[in-house]
Design a protein that fits this description.
single chain; globular; 5-stranded parallel β-sheet; 44% helix; alpha/beta; 303 residues; 13 helices
Amino acid sequence: MLQNSPSKPRALRIGLIANRSHQDAPNSALVQLLRGSRDAIAHLQPEWIVVGRTLDAIIAHDLLAVCGQHQRFPYGREGGLMKLVARVVDSDPLRAVDAVIYLIDPVDPSSVFPEAQALKRQCVIHKKPFLSTLASAREWLDLEAIAIGATPNAALESGYALANEGIALIAHDAMKERMLAIAEKHFVLLDQFAHRYATGTTGGLLNQLAQKIKGEQAGRNWVQPFMSGPLGGDAQIAELVLDRKIRRILFLEDPHVARQHEADIQLLERAARTVSDFAQVVSETGGAERWLELISKRMAFAS
């Protein structure tokens, strides 16, 4: 059992699952994650809550020593994923997971099972990172390790040449004010990106913010606005993700409302998961704040 003390907070507890196509091959996403993040994992020393077959794959690839402390959950068909959802919402700090890494193959039927969708939704509601691509999981582990004193992973360095990078900023209606607050707080960082994209109203609001900060002319086209999500903006951004022109997507979702354009949202997420080694999606406010703060810290470390 993890021990808590005022001087040493308990280690992170991370749920881990990968779809079958991301497990078996010697260069699968699961293998790349654990081998590529070996130093960050050693620094963090997390406890892993691993769903059955994913743990079998870790053992088969001789990577159990990289993981360290872990707990086996049942196979997905035996309720392992459902139990992981329950750990996301658990109020007991000795049982709850702090984040979930779910390496999703977008063509795997299980990725749209109710428990898979509930897992993401509850992570958003409870403000816990839900990391569904190899790139997002690797960056998250690297940033969390940096937060407690680790050296940045040099293999990820190219993703921090922000003058060559694109970022998408998307927010549902109830989250638009929050997006503006986050963008204003982290404007210096966001301003370093070569390109910023947004859908519909969010893009117009962000350009107004940029005009307030940078001046009317300099801030006029700070964000390139696309159509609103329901009218196809998510699809427009998805194409740029597939073309590897947008690496990072900040999508502040409102999980409490019915969304008639759910298919469009899933299309954008599916695009990111199709280029799993490249694209990242952050979907909840708490994680978004910390993500941008730690990116700034990493950038300062490099300079």
